[in-house]
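Module 6 notes. Inverse folding takes a fixed backbone as the condition and produces residue identities as the prediction. Think of it as a translation problem where the source language is geometry and the target language is the twenty amino acids. Below is one complete input and output pair. Work through it position by position during the lab.
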């Protein structure tokens, strides 16, 4: 299988990154990846997040194409990691603010959201 498309560091655009971070579930995913370790996509979704596979794939694609995460295939697994170095180089301090932000409002709002249909953010 061909590698998954990712924007290069120089191609990262603030609007794309902010759009990728503009959904409560994606914010929770980014915070879960903030430890810096690479994980399989199936182990990253926050506890209690019941997300259909199609919706999860949609969120992964938005995060990847927005330049927030890097994904690679490893056998039958899709591994994911936060692009901390690239984001810090292009937008210093942005990721630290996102990770440190109060999540109580976003988490409460996320619990009330229906699954995101494929093709929409």
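Target side of the pair, the amino acids:
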């Amino acid at each position: 299988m061909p590698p998954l498309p990712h924007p290069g560091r120089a191609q990262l655009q603030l609007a794309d990154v902010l759009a990728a971070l503009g959904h409560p579930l994606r914010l929770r995913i980014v915070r879960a990846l903030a430890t810096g370790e690479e994980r399989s996509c199936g182990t990253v979704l926050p506890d209690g997040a019941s997300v259909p596979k199609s919706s999860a794939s949609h969120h992964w694609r938005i995060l990847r194409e927005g330049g927030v995460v890097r994904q690679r295939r490893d056998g039958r697994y899709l591994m994911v990691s936060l692009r901390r170095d690239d984001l810090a180089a292009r937008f210093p301090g942005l990721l630290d603010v996102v990770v440190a932000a109060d999540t109580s409002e976003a988490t409460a709002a996320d619990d009330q959201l229906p699954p995101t249909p494929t093709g929409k953010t």
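Reference fact for the lab report: The two ends are 26 Å apart (CA to CA).
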